[in-house]
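call fold(seq) -> tokens
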Amino acid sequence: MKGKHFLSVADLPSEGVAQLVERAYSMKRGKGERPLAGKEFALIFEKPSLRTRVSFEVGIRQLGGACTYLSQQDVGLGVREPEADIARVLDRWVDGIIARVFSHRSLELLTEYCDIPVVNALSDLEHPCQAMGDLLTIYEHKRRLSDLNIAFIGDGNNVASSLALACASVGANFTLASPEDYQIPAVVLEEARRRAADKESKLEWVSEPAAAVRDADVVYTDTWVSMGDEAEKAERIAVFSDYTVDEALVESAKPDFLFMHDMPAYRGQELSEGMIDHPRSVVFDQAENRLHAQNAILAAIFSD
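ret:
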């Protein structure tokens, strides 16, 4: 992974996904590394964020580096300036770009016009750093990743896409429960299915949340209205009205199931009021583990 971009979970071979989780687990437990000493990073954020921004800024400092935060008003990807020009300027100043963007194509354009690594901090297609933090959280609690049943309830969005790829890479079974028109994009699904076949794991779609949750080791949900989808808010809330994860739904999961949500969480929509603080909830472990997973990603890219 040294010197490479990280735009998708698929940028890693299947074996590399598990290895990265192991590295994150080791780094969290105190085996410190400072591979970013003397390195500078540009954080380009078209979308605001609590977890992503703070975890990257703290992590870069922990690993010995420094960073400059650039909002949409500061940069204007493809609006004030073409991505190509921005990439070629930053390429001369910094050692890496971490970008949280509306369009995945913006990331691809950045990689085409610079030689420094670009890390996807979220796009409309994928959220690979979140998926790696999710696998780390599951591994911490289950002490394994293969042969687990992961149920994702709701929109087949960027979070679901990256998690499907990640689960398929480590031999975990992944089931998405969503309305038919809100499945994982075909371009992601094809690669996830290939990886699942290699690992002899299952990758399924169902329309009924109860079918996905039955005997699940992990029950995961996410917002129905992502940033950029606000114009569809009323429609999405109506379409997903039967996909709320609540205490009754998770009763059919395994007794030691984990409840996961990448946050921010909208109580009364994708989850009931009490699920964040459910005894089986690990959502704040997830939030913490974004830091450690991202540190492992950066260490893998920049270590000698």
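The two ends are 11 Å apart (CA to CA).
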